[in-house]
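Ticket reopened. Same input as before:
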Amino acid sequence: MKAQQQNMFGGSRRLQMNESIDLTIRSLQAYGPTHKHWAIAWSGGKDSTATLTLVVWLIESGKIQRPETLTVLFADTRLEMVPLMAAAHDIMDNLRELGIDVRVVMAEMDQRYFVYLLGRGVPPPNNGTLRWCTAQIKIEPMEAELRQLFAEKGKKVLMITGVRQGESAMRDARIVMSCGKDGAECGQGWYQETLPTSLCDTLAPLLHWRVCHIWEWLRHWAPRAEYGDWSTEMVAEAYGGDEAEEKNARTGCMGCPLASKDMALENLTKRPQWAYLSPLLRLKPMYRWLREPSQRLRQPGGEKRKDGTLTANQQRMGPLTMEARLSALDQVLAIQAEVNQVAEATGRPRVDILNPEEEARIRELIALNTWPNKWTGEEPRADIALDTMYSDGSVWPIFDFLKSSAA
Ligand code: SF4
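Engineering reply: fixed in the latest deploy. New output:
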């Protein structure tokens, strides 16, 4: 057995599908019985959907011992790809028919993506200091639900995640859990890394799976009656078909402002049956537009810390103007209406990224003149030229700047 295991991870032969499943069974048999209560963190993406459907099938078919309770926590960011959401709803129906406790985990109203962006006026997230989205719309709601679960069960649960490193990373011992590494979904690594160990222990039973096995399971095994009859083909479709599958594709929120390209959505909308989602491709350019100085305010200079000293980043750009927020709100509503008009006429899945309650809350926050902390709305617009102030308090008058630019 030892020699065979060495071969699996380090030798020339790649893991076969049955061997991958067998290793998953063994990991669940080894660690599963240590906890009475299991939970599955499910993002709706390929890795966590494969994990969820496989684990439930293994339990239902008696291949692993049934835990006392199983709770499925579906993370709804409100921005998931349309086919993923459609598949998730079908899968949730199946799970409920099996008597499994399924909970939809969503951020509180004011923390949701569009409410925070357009109601509070915080600019779109970026890869630098303003990376507010993953924690706020994925991790924190999951943590809150986990706290609730812990209170209900009175003990730690075993949290099963879809973290997957694949064979090569296993071989290289590069088990780095981060957002979006090696084709993993945004948030998956974070679930493994950041969920409090006081509330749960985590297990990633598909850690060793190669991406081709994920596709194989979602496309050809899981949809069969003998493996649970799951609607997982649509999950594979969300990644844009065979070409994307070869590339170890990943997907996150539609229009993710942190991704360089909206690859998954672009690939998806090339397919005739999903072409009606094309208006959603306008989200990403809209975020770029929102980041421009003319859509934002700027600190006028002289901003101080609590101790009275000047902050390092004088005249920093900040929140979105009210005009920009209202314009973006109209754009999002128009995109959604355009998609849903075709969806209704053709019987295709609808998009739901901004519901009437969220729209009403955004308008209410705007009417209440809501700004992020340390901003009042009285600051100048960021495209208005000002004297430049430095963190030591020195000022370079705009007139001198213009003279030197002209020279
Ligand atoms: S997919 Fe993009 S927008 Fe969504 S939470 Fe992750 S980084 Fe943020």
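Confidence is low (pLDDT under 50) at residues 1-12, 167-183. The domain at 2-251 is CATH 3.40.50.620 (Rossmann fold). Please confirm and we'll close it.
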